[in-house]
Amino acid sequence: MRREEIVQTYHLKGNPGQGLALATFGFFVGFAAVSLFGPVTNNFNHLMHMKGLLLGLLIAAPNLSGSLLRIPFGAWVDKAGGKKPFIILLLLSLLGMAGLTAILFFYYPRGITLNMYPVIFFFGLLSGCGIATFSVGVPQTSYWFPQKKQGLALGTYGGLGNTAPGVFGMILPFALAALGLTASYAAWFVFLLVGTVIYSLFAQDAYYFQLAQTGKSQEEAKQIAQDLGQELFPSGKMKEALRISAKTPKTWLLVILYFTSFGGFLALTGWFPTYWNQYFGLSAGQAGLLMALGFSILASLVRIYGGHLSDKFGGELTAVLSYGVVLSGALILIFTHNFWFALFGEITVGIGMGTANAAVFKLVPKYVPQAPGGASGWVGGLGAFGGFVVPPILGAFTDLYGKKGYAAGFWVYVVLAAIAIVTSFILRRSAQS
Fold it and tell me: In this protein, which residues make up the domain named Major facilitator superfamily (MFS) profile (predicted)?
């Protein structure tokens, strides 16, 4: 039968373009849930008078859930497809946003004290569930596309989805001026709610999962999906996907790489507004715009082209060069006291991280083709855990060195980038042998 006849016979919905668009939209919406959290922690800090370590932990709270939940939910895609895990994570994020909005409505500003830290931290954790949608969208997108198009597809998915913090970072100063903090949070909650509904109504899993959900056997569903062009197929069990990918040594090398690039990206998305505000004395609005334009949006859009470079030159070589760029930018941020050089350093780090992120996920289906969902969970989850680990360390530098600590903290990225460069070389040599 022709493709159109097969689709009509089995009542299949969607196509690769729609699959990519809805996965990207869902990730963008989920990431938007935490775009206000970093900036609002500065407001809370003025009222709660936190130490640098506590401030770093609070900024990083969404990244804890957003990273660790990627592991089981990414692997679950190999069993259930992407739509169901995606919706559950978005609903958990909605609960977090609702809780934070309620705190602002009933307690801000006079009722916000250090005693409320655990409650705010908890709702920050829930909000971060939207970040975990990334590892769901990666295999959901991968199953729609052939191997030769993985780099560009995943680069587009990750790149456009990752623009959420930057886009909302630009909108935030205007929203705060027009609506105030509480109403702005309520508006973000409504956006997340509407986005969740849209994703739930229109997103579709790849053909194999649609067929499996109608009762087709694994073999029959696989054969029909292959006739429609699908190349990647799951092991079928969540635990099996995690086990297979965990037993693949290169999964853990990819975790190391992603810890630096995407974990580092998450950490700096929350930290850069504080850095610009405290180290250079910029207003919260100016600091947010610099983070958005000079880092978050830039890194996200570069990720799209990074996918193209990874398809053309290979993910391994692209990673080596990208982490070298990250290291260079971190050194600039350490030693400069000049605003323009610091901005150049931020931009340099953003370009390196964006390109590296694309390179890493070009390599996931290459090295773990039998369980890309499980591998996506390990790499996306433990890699993104850097977004939780790094901010408290950066905060500790400020506790130790005062204002100078905001620059000295970037030694963390020098070390991480150097480790990532060595790891990328190991992968490149293994690919050539």
Answer: 19-432
